[in-house]
UniProtKB/TrEMBL annotation:
InterPro entries from the UniProt entry: SRP68, SRP68-RBD, SRP68_N_sf
Subcellular location(s) of the protein: Cytoplasm; Endoplasmic reticulum; Nucleus, Nucleolus
An individual GO BP term: SRP-dependent cotranslational protein targeting to membrane
Species: Hucho hucho
One cellular component term from this protein's GO annotations in UniProt: endoplasmic reticulum
Entry annotated with the keyword Ribonucleoprotein: yes
Recorded superkingdom: Eukaryota
Protein name: Signal recognition particle subunit SRP68
C-alpha cells in the first residue's frame, strides 16, 4: 500500500512490508520524514567508505562485519540510543541493496521470497560480498527492532513477547550468514567474524530467556573469537575487537552470578569503578545489570535495624536501595580519583531520592487510612521511621560528599599557583561547603522519631562542633588575606575553643569521631597559623609609620581646642595662625517661654439664661415681619 508523505506518493518495498507485518500500516509524521531525509543525505556521504570495506579481495569474498555494523550504529542513532532510527536506516539500506543487485522480492503487487544460498556465492555471477551484506542488514534490522521493543517494554510488558520474536529472527539471520560464510570463496577472517556475530545474537536470545548457562557459553565463544582476532591483526583493528569484548563482559559476569558465582557481583562493581566518570551505553548497561542483581537479592530481605529499632521493609524499591547501600559505600571508598567518587555520590543520592519518594507515597496512603480509622498514637510508625532512616542516609551522604570536595579544594589551596590569570580556589569556597554541611546536620537533629534519642542528638551536636571549627578556621584565613589581623586572631581563638570542646565531649561518646576529620591536626595547624599571623601583623605595623612621613597630614583644629595635645604646627608662627575658630559657631540658648492658659478649660461659668431676651412666638405675622425686617 503506498504511503503519503507531505502530499507526495512513495511506493513501499514489499520486503520491508513483510518484515514489519504487525497488522497496521506504518504512520509517518513530518518530523519523521525530515529526519529520514537527513539520514538519506548522511548515507549518501558514507557510501564510498562502506564500499571500500565491502570490496571483494583477490583471495575471495571478504566482509568486515564488526567494522560495518559499528560505523553504521554510531552514525545512525545508536550514539544516542535511538534504535528506531537505526532500524529505519537498515530497512532503507536493504532496499537499496536489493535494487542494486536486482534481487527484489517480487513487486508492489506480489511478494516472492528470495534467499541467498551457498550455491549462489559459488557462481561467478553472484561473487559479490553485497549478498553477505544483505543478510547482515536483515539481522541488524531485526536486532534493532528488538532493542527498541526492550526500551518500550519498561512501560508495556506485553511487548516483551514481540521482543523475543525479533531477537530469534535476528539470530536466525545470523545463522544464515554463518552458513553462507562456509563457502570456500569467503576468506577466513570473515568466517570468524560471522561465527562471533552469530554467537553474540544467540547469546542475547538466551540472555532474555534467562537461560544463563547457554547464554554464558555463547558469549564466551564470541569473546574468545574476538580476542583471537585482536591478537592477529593491527592495533587499529584490535581496538575495535577489544571494545566488543568489554561490551560482552558484563553479560558474562551477570550470567555467572545467576548460575551461582557469588564473586561475579563484585566483578560487576569493579567494572563500574573502572568505567570512570564517563557515562554512555556501557555505564548504563552496567547499572541495569547491577540493579537486576540486587532485585533478586532483595527478595530475601525483610527488615532493617537502625538506632536499636528493627523496621520491616515491604517496599521493593527500598529493599533494593538498602541492599546496595553497602556496595555503593565500598565503591566510593575504592574510587581511584575524585571524578569517579563524585559520580558515585551523585548516583547514590539519586537512588536515595527515588526511594524516599516511593516511601512518601506509601506514607500518604497510611495517613489516609489512619484518618478513616481515627487512630491517634504518639509512637512513630514503622514506615515513618523507615522514612527518617532514608532521610538520614541522604543527609549524611551530602555531608560526606561536601567533605570530600572540601579536602580536594584544601589540597589545591596549599599548591602554589602557576598561572596568575587563572582563578584558583579561595577560602570562601570552603566556607560555602561547610555551610551546607552544617545545614544538613541541623536537619538531622529534627528527624521524626529521634527527638527523644539523646545519644543521637549529642552525636549530631558533636559533629556540628567539628564542622563549625573548620568553617571558623577558613573564615579566619579569608580575613588573613585582606590583612585583618585582629579579626583573624579572634577567630583562631574561637577555633581552638571549639576543638577543645570537641575533645572534652568526645570522651563520653565512643566512636563518635570515627567518620569525622581529625581535630588534633586542626589544633596544630591553628597554632602554627597564629604565630605566622602575629609575625605578619608586627611587620605590617613596622611599615605603617613610614607612610605618614612621606605625606603631610593637615590638622585644622584650632589651638584653643587642643591645648592638652602637643604637636609641632609651623602655621602658628606664620601670618595666619589657627588660634580660634572665627566666626564662632552658633550656640543654643534658652528662648522666651510661652504661657498657655490651661485653667480656662476647667472653669465653669455661671448660667446667663435669665439675661437672654426671650423671643415670642409671632406666628405668620411675625414670620412676614421677619422677612421684610420690620421686627428687627
Amino acid at each position: 500500500m503506498p504511503v503519503a508523505i507531505l502530499g507526495e506518493h512513495f511506493p513501499t518495498e514489499v520486503g520491508y512490508d513483510a518484515e514489519l507485518q504487525s497488522g497496521q500500516d506504518p504512520v509517518w509524521t513530518c518530523a519523521a520524514s525530515r529526519k529520514m531525509a537527513s539520514d538519506k543525505q548522511n548515507e549518501g556521504k558514507i557510501l564510498p567508505m562502506d564500499e571500500n570495506k565491502e570490496n571483494t579481495t583477490e583471495d575471495g569474498i571478504g566482509l568486515e562485519i564488526l567494522q560495518i555494523i559499528k560505523d553504521s550504529q554510531q552514525q545512525h542513532g545508536l550514539r544516542h540510543g535511538d534504535y528506531q532510527r537505526y532500524r529505519g536506516y537498515c530497512s532503507r539500506r536493504l532496499r537499496r541493496l536489493r535494487k542494486t543487485l536486482g534481487f527484489k522480492c517480487g513487486n508492489r503487487h506480489k511478494f516472492t521470497g528470495k534467499k541467498v544460498t551457498v550455491e549462489m556465492l559459488s557462481d561467478n555471477r553472484y561473487s559479490d560480498n553485497r549478498y553477505l551484506l544483505l543478510v547482515l542488514m536483515e539481522a541488524e534490522r531485526a536486532w534493532s527492532y528488538a532493542m527498541q521493543l526492550k526500551q518500550e517494554a519498561n512501560t508495556e510488558p506485553r511487548k516483551r513477547f514481540h521482543l523475543l520474536s525479533r531477537l530469534r529472527k535476528s539470530a536466525k539471520h545470523g545463522e544464515r550468514l554463518e552458513k553462507l560464510c562456509e563457502s570456500p570463496r569467503v576468506d577466513a577472517k570473515t568466517k570468524l567474524e560471522a561465527q562471533a556475530y552469530t554467537s553474540y545474537l544467540s547469546g542475547m536470545v538466551r540472555f532474555e530467556l534467562q537461560e544463563w548457562k547457554a547464554a554464558m557459553e555463547a558469549f564466551n565463544k564470541c569473546k574468545t573469537i574476538y580476542e583471537k582476532l585482536a591478537s592477529a591483526f593491527t592495533e587499529e583493528l584490535a581496538v575495535l575487537y577489544h571494545q566488543r569484548v568489554e561490551e560482552i563482559s558484563p553479560n558474562i559476569r551477570y550470567c555467572a552470578y545467576n548460575i551461582g558465582d557469588q564473586n561475579a557481583m563484585n566483578e560487576l562493581m569493579q567494572m563500574r569503578l573502572s568505567a570512570g566518570g564517563g557515562g554512555g551505553m556501557m555505564a548504563e548497561k552496567l547499572e541495569a545489570l547491577i540493579t537486576q542483581t540486587r532485585a533478586k537479592q532483595a527478595a530475601t530481605m525483610s527488615e532493617v535495624e537502625w538506632r536499636g529499632r528493627t523496621v520491616p521493609v515491604k517496599i521493593d524499591k527500598a529493599r533494593i536501595f538498602l541492599l546496595g547501600l553497602g556496595d555503593n559505600e565500598a565503591a566510593i571508598a575504592q574510587a581511584a580519583n575524585e571524578e569517579t567518587k563524585e559520580r558515585l555520590y551523585e548516583t547514590l543520592l539519586a537512588e536515595c531520592r527515588d526511594t524516599i519518594q516511593a516511601v512518601r507515597e506509601e506514607l500518604k496512603i497510611e495517613a489516609k487510612q489512619r484518618e478513616r480509622s481515627d487512630e491517634a498514637s504518639g509512637k512513630v510508625s514503622n514506615l515513618q521511621f523507615l522514612h527518617s532512616y532514608l532521610i538520614y542516609i541522604k543527609l549524611w551522604t551530602v555531608v560526606k560528599r561536601n567533605e570530600s570536595m572540601a579536602h580536594m579544594l584544601q589540597a589545591k589551596l596549599k599548591e602554589p599557583q602557576t598561572d596568575e590569570n587563572k582563578r584558583g580556589p579561595r577560602p570562601q569556597d570552603l566556607i560555602r561547603l561547610y555551610d551546607i554541611i552544617l545545614q544538613s546536620l541541623a536537619e538531622l537533629s529534627t528527624l521524626q522519631g529521634l527527638e527523644e534519642d539523646h545519644t543521637f542528638q549529642k552525636e549530631v551536636a558533636l559533629k556540628m562542633l567539628v564542622y563549625k571549627a573548620y568553617r571558623c578556621f577558613f573564615i579566619a584565613q579569608s580575613y588573613v588575606l585582606v590583612k585583618k589581623w585582629s579579626e583573624a586572631l579572634v577567630l583562631y581563638e574561637r577555633v581552638l575553643k571549639y576543638a577543645k570542646e570537641v575533645q572534652s565531649k568526645a570522651k563520653s561518646l565512643n566512636n563518635s569521631l570515627k567518620d569525622l576529620p581529625d581535630v588534633q591536626e586542626l589544633i596544630t595547624e591553628v597554632n602554627a597559623e597564629k604565630y605566622s599571623l602575629q609575625a605578619a601583623a608586627i611587620l605590617d605595623t613596622e611599615d605603617a609609620p613610614e607612610a605618614p612621613s612621606q605625606r603631610k597630614v593637615k590638622d585644622n583644629t584650632p589651638l584653643c581646642e587642643r591645648l592638652d595635645t602637643f604637636h609641632l604646627d609651623p602655621t602658628l608662627v606664620g601670618k595666619q595662625p589657627n588660634l580660634v575658630q572665627f566666626p564662632p559657631d552658633f550656640q543654643p540658648i534658652p528662648c522666651k517661654p510661652l504661657f498657655f492658659d490651661l485653667a480656662l478649660n476647667h472653669v465653669a461659668f455661671p448660667p446667663l439664661d435669665d439675661k437672654v431676651e426671650q423671643k415670642g412666638k409671632g406666628g405668620l405675622t411675625g414670620y412676614i415681619k421677619g422677612i421684610f425686617g420690620f421686627g428687627s
